[in-house]
Amino acid sequence: EKAVNLKKDLAEMQEWMTQAEEEYLEKDFEYKSPEELENAVEEMKRAKEDVLQKEVRVKILKDNIKMLAAKVPSSGQDLATELNVVLENYQLLCNRIRGKCHTLEEVWSCWIELLQYLDLETAWLNNLEERVQMTENLPDKLDAVNDALESLESVLRHPADNRTQIRELGQTLIDGGILDDIISEKLEAFNARYEELSHLAVSRQITLEQQLQTMRETDHMLQVLQENLVELDRQLTSYLTDRVDAFQMPQEAQ
After folding, report:
1. Which portions of this protein are annotated as coiled-coil regions (predicted)?
2. Is residue 60, in this structure, part of any structural domain at all?
């Protein structure tokens, strides 16, 4: 009777493993929204816990069959053969569910990381847009133009590492068919805004550089003219002081 009960327990265990495999491993999942992906992650965590909890039951079966085999070798031998199959299938099920759970957790982590990088780069784009707007309607003063140019250039020196991460993470998820529509939409909007603002900022940078160069040249010309006027004033004052007749002066002094 004990052998019959153990055989029944082995059959039930095998049936449970078959159902678990169908439910957790053979279903085709399509993760088209973050909610679906998150639910799948939580479901696989529960599946992993559920499967691992059966380890106690498997151990009890193993011990009981060993005890029976010691007392009744003929019955125990048949059950031991069936037990080895169940143990092998159970270990395989555990490994596969652990693997799928780990994969889904990695995918979820990849999605969260992508969102974080998008947030960082969106904040940078907002800052860039603000700096570009600050270059409009500047006072016609060299210091004001120079400060606006330096401010814009400091933002444009932003490294490209985050954008590289966005591209790689997005492509990894899209290639796996994970949230591909949502990610494609987000990346398209981000890239379009990045291209538009970058081109506008670089164009404004070139304009400011040209404006600054013109202002510096004009400032230099005015400085030279001022110096010449001071020197001319000094010479004329000297002539007047010495009561020199105008016709005795050089042509330019006249």
Report:
1. 3-64, 208-242
2. yes
